[in-house]
Amino acid sequence: MGNHGKPRCDPKVTATSTQGARERAPLQLENFLPYRLSILSNTVSQGIASDYQQRFALSVTEWRVMAVLARFDGLSARDVAERTAMDKVAVSRALARLVAAGRVDRAIHDDDKRRSVLRLSAGGWLIHDEIAPMARLRERALLHKLTLHERAWLKRILDKLQDGAPVRR
Amino acid sequence: MGNHGKPRCDPKVTATSTQGARERAPLQLENFLPYRLSILSNTVSQGIASDYQQRFALSVTEWRVMAVLARFDGLSARDVAERTAMDKVAVSRALARLVAAGRVDRAIHDDDKRRSVLRLSAGGWLIHDEIAPMARLRERALLHKLTLHERAWLKRILDKLQDGAPVRR
DNA sequence: TTACTATAGTTACAAATGCAACTATCTGCA
DNA sequence: TGCAGATAGTTGCATTTGTAACTATAGTAA
């Protein structure tokens, strides 16, 4: 029962990294790629969100929907879901709020009455035009931590990591 | 009112990238670093979670708590929150479930009765020892998409992006 | 037509999450 | 002592999210 080689270490005295048993040893979260990605992504997204969250009462999902609609006019909800890699239910709800707030106009497709035809409203564009530059600034600040060389590698690496990844729906 | 240079483009006909107006133009989400990080992170975490989610009825937060406890024995809830970069409330709730399920043993600190002293139970270790290798495999599969050179760059880049980042609490 | 299947989008319900308020304990200092 | 913060952890409540079921429309073929 108790034959587990538990790493008994005082947590305050830096991490007795229990190397030795290769597969069995506990993960080192701080070096575990999926974990690091998660932390970094949350930190970054949270930073950007704090720019507009309270100011416009806009959630991250709502902003993402607005961002795609700014780029591609007349998409259906399904298209939006595809382009944002968000769940269709999440998109539906974000759209309900955006339409109610008058930030997005929703029409019905002529040839297919199931589809909606989505478009930023004038008010939506105003908000978009305030947020987009802030988002860009955040990205720039992030990239400024890297050399040009590193930025190029990062892009290449993200491409490779992403390729063949399953697309959510 | 309508003097917005909206990019009218058929979404099916690949992305008329509205370059020109530098700051004003809509974001290209697909090249926007924060967005890419978010997608990648979600995809990866989701993949790992699918390995244990239903099988052990374990949430991502719970697994993370178990992972730190595997590595550092006798932490307090606060320590766990710090090491997982999770909210203390989230940790408290995850612990409540883990203790109830008999996966974590909770004692009270001798010198400070506020603190808990946390430790994986024997059953917790069994589960950990099943999940950890799977998680490692997932990470390995991810890293195998990269050359050794790229892996080194990625590590370096993540370090730089993360440095100076605010620590959640 | 009718029936079967697929798709767009919404709704319902349950679980997860975040924030603020709360209890209990500890620390420091008059 | 005893009182005013701090800190560890939990609880309540409102919001968000995920899953599945549902409605409505479309496509296809007998």
Q: Can you walk me through this structure?
A:
The structure is a homodimer of 169-residue chains. With 169 residues, chain A is mainly alpha-helical. Chain A is 56% helix and 6% strand. Chain A contains six helices and two strands, in the order H-H-H-H-E-E-H-H. The first copy, chain A, has helices at 33-56, 60-71, 77-84, 88-100, 122-143, 148-162, and strands at residues 104-108, 116-120. Chain A has a two-stranded antiparallel ribbon with strand order 1-2. In chain A, strand 1 (104-108) and strand 2 (116-120) form a beta hairpin. In chain A, helix 3 packs across helix 4 (88-100). Mean pLDDT of chain A is 84; it is low at 1-23. Chains A and B meet through helix 1, helix 2, helix 3, helix 5 and helix 6 of A and helix 1, helix 2, helix 3, helix 5 and helix 6 of B. Chain A binds a DNA duplex (30 and 30 nucleotides) through helix 4.
Describe the structure concisely for a colleague.
Two copies of one chain form a homodimer. Chain A has 169 residues and is mainly alpha-helical.
Protein topology:
Two copies of one chain form a homodimer.
Chain A: H1 33-56, H2 60-71, H3 77-84, H4 88-100, E1 104-108, E2 116-120, H5 122-143, H6 148-162
Chain A binds a DNA duplex (30 and 30 nucleotides) through residues 59, 61, 76-78, 87-93, 95-96, 112-116.
Greatest interface: A-B, 76 and 76 residues
Reported for the largest beta sheet of chain A, the result is:
2 strands, antiparallel
Low-confidence stretches of chain A: 1-23
Helix content of chain A: 55-70%
Helix and strand string of chain A, N-terminal first?
Answer: HHHHEEHH
Shape of chain A: globular
Quaternary state of this entry equals homodimer
Which structural class is indicated by helix and strand composition of chain A?
mainly alpha
Strand order of the largest sheet of chain A: 1-2
Tell me the number of helical segments of chain A per DSSP (H or I, 4 or more residues long).
Answer: 6
